[in-house]
Design a protein that fits this description.
single chain; about 425 residues; mainly alpha; Growth Hormone, Chain: A
Length: about 425
């Protein structure tokens, strides 16, 4: 099916907002953990608690603010103003002195970030696309996390992350850039021409996606969201501890040089993989991401040498991002037209809330008895071990079984549309 034409202004706005949003999320998801680990000697339980708290805030915010954006019939204002305040909130981390305050401020920052990105930006992408171009949009959009990781890794190479002054500079740079993007949004973003505010009450709009009747009408959407949650749980088992694993456990202080080529290659794969979804649909296109992810887990479990770690990282990153693009495209295709804001809450529950609660908890559980090392000041820090890859793989195998079971029931004509 031929998709509706999208102008250059859309693509520029998508690239700018998508990339800067992911840069900010990468700093939170991958480096806040490093921040409290290095500055405050956080435990695996501390890191898990921070990820969980942020996931809860992201889900609640997206649920509420996505519905609000439907109610007022606007995305642009929420994106632009949200990014401005999001950036300012990032700067405040330069002045934080404890794990507790980091977690509190992370929740506050997540409110503005989720309003701007998870709720408004994602609803805007759904508004502007259709079944003919969704895979292309999602392929490029899902490439953003990898590109942002590359930007952040490359930028952080010039900083000594054991020094607090480096973190101060980082938070000012990322915060200021995010705020400037928000200001630019006033000139770049165009709401979808057919976007109209809903006449339903705010309460009805908030609860819309939780109605039994809506579930029955959109049964497949909810099944896919459950599968997406399982995919995210697998990722979140290891992701909060990934950089610490590379740097401390494997002793690869130059992990950026190992990861950068893997990220570039995975970004290229992800950019083109959206076309596979457009041509073949979910059933076919989800298989390769799961295989690549499983192969990456196995290789990262089995080796500590540089070249195999690079190959394992490439497979893991490629499977992760292509999987995200396939799930994302399918979910956007299944969301009813002109109701995208009302479904951002259940989307974020599947994408962030459930994975953010369960994945890090599994990771913390398998790392409960992890080896400890002594720091220069006499305190101790934990070393993530390879058990995180086994735990992540087991969740992935369960996901594959669930997808296979649903497809089999569909083939047999049972009630999974």
């Amino acid at each position: 099916m031929e998709g509706k034409e999208l102008n250059k202004r859309f693509w520029v706005a998508m690239l700018v907002f998508g990339l800067m949003g992911q840069v900010a999320w990468v700093v939170e998801n991958m480096y806040f953990n490093v921040f409290i680990y290095k500055m405050f000697h956080a435990s695996a339980a501390d890191i898990s608690a921070m990820v969980m708290a942020s996931a809860v805030m992201a889900a609640l915010t997206t649920l509420i603010m996505g519905a609000v954006s439907d109610k007022v019939g606007k995305r642009k204002a929420f994106m632009s103003v949200g990014y401005i305040i999001w950036g300012l909130s990032i700067i405040t981390f330069a002045y934080i002195k404890s794990i507790f305050m980091t977690i509190v401020m992370d929740c506050i920052m997540t409110f503005f970030g989720s309003t701007a990105n998870d709720a408004a930006y994602n609803a805007w992408l759904t508004d502007r696309g259709d079944t003919g171009n969704r895979g292309k949009i999602e392929g490029i959009n899902s490439m953003m996390p990898l590109v942002s990781i590359l930007i952040v890794f490359g930028g952080f190479m010039s900083f000594n992350l054991d020094e607090h002054s480096s973190w101060v500079t980082i938070y000012y740079i990322i915060g200021a850039a995010t705020t400037l993007i928000g200001i630019a949004g006033a000139f770049l973003i165009e709401d979808a021409p057919d976007l109209k505010k809903t006449e339903d009450s705010l309460g009805d709009t908030l609860l819309y996606s939780f109605r039994p009747s809506v579930f029955k009408e959109n049964r497949l959407l909810y099944f896919i969201l459950v599968e997406f949650a399982m995919f995210g749980i697998s990722i979140q088992v290891f992701m909060p501890y990934l950089i610490i694993y590379y740097e401390k456990t494997l002793g690869m202080s130059n992990y950026v040089l190992i990861m950068a080529p893997a990220i570039l290659a995975a970004a290229v794969v992800t950019a083109f993989y959206g076309k596979v979804y457009d041509k073949n649909g979910f059933k076919v296109s989800i298989k390769l991401p799961l295989v690549m992810l499983a192969a990456g887990y196995l290789l990262l479990y089995a080796t500590k040498s540089m070249v195999p770690v690079f190959i394992g990282s490439l497979l893991m990153m490629s499977g992760y991002l292509t999987g995200m693009s396939v799930f994302g495209a399918k979910i956007r295709d299944l969301i009813p037209e002109n109701k995208s804001g009302r479904f951002q809450g259940v989307r974020i529950i599947g994408q962030v809330f459930i994975p953010g609660l369960i994945g890090p908890a599994i990771g913390a559980a398998v790392l409960k008895d992890a080896e400890l090392i002594y720091n220069d000041d006499g305190t101790t820090s934990f070393l993530p071990d390879k058990s995180i890859w086994v735990a992540a793989l087991l969740v992935l195998i369960l996901l594959a079984a669930v997808i296979w079971g649903r497809e089999r029931r569909k083939k047999l004509g049972q009630n999974v549309k």
